[in-house]
């Protein structure tokens, strides 16, 4: 781990944030762009879910996390509070790992 | 909503503990792990950078992958900019807090005031808990294995909760399903982090105009 990585990543990450929020973002987008922009969280959060659930690096697979996340989906569907959704996922995942 | 923000912060903080542990075991000093969390403040990027370094990757490859992952915050900034007007100084601070959690929590709200409150409450909560968690993790060193406690599933579980409001509309469901499929299809073939960027193509389901407006995203209804 080097300071070049820490500081380079800090500068680059902040540049992306400022570019989107402050530099480009001030203009009112056309309606079609607006419709697409509001869909970004749905698309990306869904992608993050499957990435964190089914992949390790570039390998796809089913492991204990899938059981935990399935539990989270059921908890969210039953309108459980966030802490329960997360707790169920962590507990189920840990239990499956401990059993396996 | 504030309680949801704090709860999310706590969950993120627990994850940050595992980041701190991972960073130190990858050879970072406690100061470096904390500086990274304070300055970068993009969870996925930090994990990505640490895991590449831990696997023996170069600084350049660690930086490249992590920056690809953080590029999506620029996209979040675009989505949030309409809701975060104000002085330049305020917006420059808001920029640092623009990330998955704050954007998702804000866009899940139904009116402008609630969106602003959700953004700042979630952003600040996550910032505090993320950095405290990273410090705790760095100090714990290698004592904790996050997998043993299922903490690696806490992250996607939080995303599940965040995704839920977006599934109320047909377009939201389509974008989510397509985003997930694109991501899974890309995972084996492109560097870690790129599938998330590729999933942004799923927003193209928003291009056709809806016939009755009934399937507009709830977050855009005024």
Q: From the helix content, strand content and strand pairing of chain A, which structural class follows?
A: mainly alpha
Helix content of chain B: 55-70%
Low-pLDDT ranges of chain B? 212-222
What letter string, H or E per element, gives the SSE order of chain A? HHHEEHH
Structural class by secondary-structure content of chain B? mainly alpha
Number of helices of chain B: 11
What is the radius of gyration of chain A computed over CA atoms, rounded to a whole number of angstroms? 19 Å
| Helicity level of chain A | over 70%
N-to-C terminal Cα separation of chain B, in Å? 19 Å
Record the strand order, biggest sheet of chain A.
1-2
- Kindly state the mean pLDDT of chain A as a whole number? 85
Summed up, the domain count of chain B is 1
N-to-C SSE string of chain B, H for helix and E for strand = HHHHHHHHHHH
Query: Gyration radius of chain B, to the nearest Å?
Result: 18 Å
Please tally the helical runs of chain A, counting DSSP H or I stretches of 4 or more residues.
5
Counting DSSP E segments of at least 2 residues, the number of strands of chain A comes to 2
The residue-averaged pLDDT of chain B reads 81
Assembly category: heterodimer
How many beta-strand runs of chain B?
Answer: 0
Strand content of chain B: under 5%
Detailed description of the structure:
The complex is a heterodimer of chains A (100) and B (222). Chain A contains five helices and two strands; from the N terminus they run αααββαα. Chain A is mainly alpha-helical and 100 residues long. Chain A has a two-stranded antiparallel sheet. In chain A, strand 1 (55-56) and strand 2 form a beta hairpin. In chain A, helix 4 (64-77) packs antiparallel against helix 5. The longest helix of chain A is centred in the first third of the chain and has 22 residues, at 3-24. Chain B has 222 residues and is mostly helical. Chain B has one domain (2-164). Chain B has helices at residues 2-25, 30-39, 43-54, 59-70, 72-81, 88-96, 100-107, 112-140, 154-163, 170-186, 194-198. Chain B is globular, with a radius of gyration of 18 Å. In chain B, 57% of the residues are buried. Classes of the chains: A mainly alpha (100), B mainly alpha (222).
